[in-house]
From TrEMBL:
Protein species of origin: Drosophila ananassae (Fruit fly)
Key words of the record: Coiled coil
Protein name: DUF4200 domain-containing protein
InterPro entries referenced in this protein's UniProt entry, alphabetically: CFAP_domain-containing, DUF4200
Source species, domain of life: Eukaryota
Keyword Coiled coil among UniProt keywords: yes
């Protein structure tokens, strides 16, 4: 088996190289290497030739053409059948549509009739119920009238003697014209008595309300007076407390006034003493001038200077005395 390189361009059958200008070089290269050494499968068995493959393909092509013609004829026949079926289906659809419209209109008419019938039945039921209620009310009214009639008959029979008495009274008396006039006057008197009793009850209720109001006003006034008494007692207590505080502060102020007056007197005495001392020093030093009592700062400065001078003199005198004593003791 010769070594060949893999073909890059093939013909229609797939096993021929279409590069003849490179075929010799490829063949020489393939003989010098083992990379592309390929053993085809069943290389020792006789395979199908190109002619046999061609014949098989032609047979398959003819069979496919026959099958195509048969399928085309069948398709045409099916098309005719389908078109006839479609026409029949359209006819049936039109029939069903018309039938549906008829049935739908019939059902609509039936529903309208049913709705109208239900409405009429409901109205008739309500009317029947109202008539039944009216009949019951009429029956009850008839029963009441029958009972009233029986009671009226009994009342007439009961008061028949009184009618005779009224007739006799009208005949005897000159005040009444007829029994009806007597009855009207009695009714008027009864109504007047009823009005008088109502007025009496009204006045009694007004009197009761006025009494309650007076009691309420009295209670309010008593509460007001009690509150005022409480306020007065509070004010009295506060007045007493304030009075005690005033007396206490009066004592404190009296003590303060005494202390202030004593301090003022001490101040005046001190100023007088300073002034007198200043005058004495001025006389001693023969300093002219009128000393002013209010210029105590200057006076104190002068007194301080004089005191310092006198203290210095005393120190000198004491020093001299001590020296003389020491000298006397030494001589002795």
């Amino acid at each position: 088996m010769p070594r060949v390189k893999p073909t890059k361009k093939v013909d229609v059958l797939g096993n021929l190289d279409l590069r003849p200008e490179e075929a010799v070089g490829d063949f020489l290269c393939s003989k010098q290497q083992d990379k592309f050494f390929v053993i085809p499968p069943n290389s020792d068995s006789a395979g199908e030739s190109i002619e046999l493959i061609y014949v098989n393909n032609v047979r398959e092509h003819e069979s496919m053409l026959k099958l195509q013609a048969e399928m085309l004829a069948n398709a045409k026949q099916q098309t005719k059948l389908n078109s006839s079926r479609v026409r029949n289906m359209y006819k049936v659809q039109e029939q069903l549509r018309s039938r549906f419209i008829e049935v739908n209109s019939f059902m609509k008419d039936c529903s309208d009739k049913k709705r109208v019938a239900e409405k009429i039945a409901a109205e008739e039921t309500i009317y029947h119920k109202e008539l039944g209620e009216d009949i019951e009310s009429f029956k009850s009214s008839i029963d009441e009238l029958r009972a009233f009639r029986e009671a009226l008959k009994a009342t007439v029979e009961e008061f028949e003697p009184y009618e005779k008495v009224l007739d006799d009274v009208v005949k005897v008396s000159d005040m009444f014209v007829s029994p009806k006039d007597c009855i009207d006057r009695c009714d008027t008197l009864l109504l007047a008595q009823k009005e008088i009793s109502q007025l009496e009850q009204q006045k009694l209720s007004e009197i009761e309300e006025m009494r309650k109001r007076m009691v309420q006003i009295t209670n309010d006034a008593a509460l007001t007076v009690l509150g005022l008494k409480n306020d007065l007692s509070k004010m009295e207590r506060s007045y007493n407390e304030s009075r005690i505080q005033c007396l206490k502060w009066e004592k404190i102020l009296a003590t303060s006034k005494c202390a202030i007056s004593d301090g003022f007197m001490d101040k005046n005495r001190t100023l007088d003493a300073i002034n007198n001392l200043y005058r004495m020093l001025c006389r001693r030093r023969d300093i002219p001038g009128k000393p002013n009592r209010n210029e105590f700062d200057m006076q104190l400065d002068v007194i301080k200077n004089e005191v310092e001078i006198l203290s210095g003199v005393l120190k000198q005198v004491e020093a001299n005395e001590s020296k003389t004593k020491q000298v006397g003791t030494q001589k002795a």
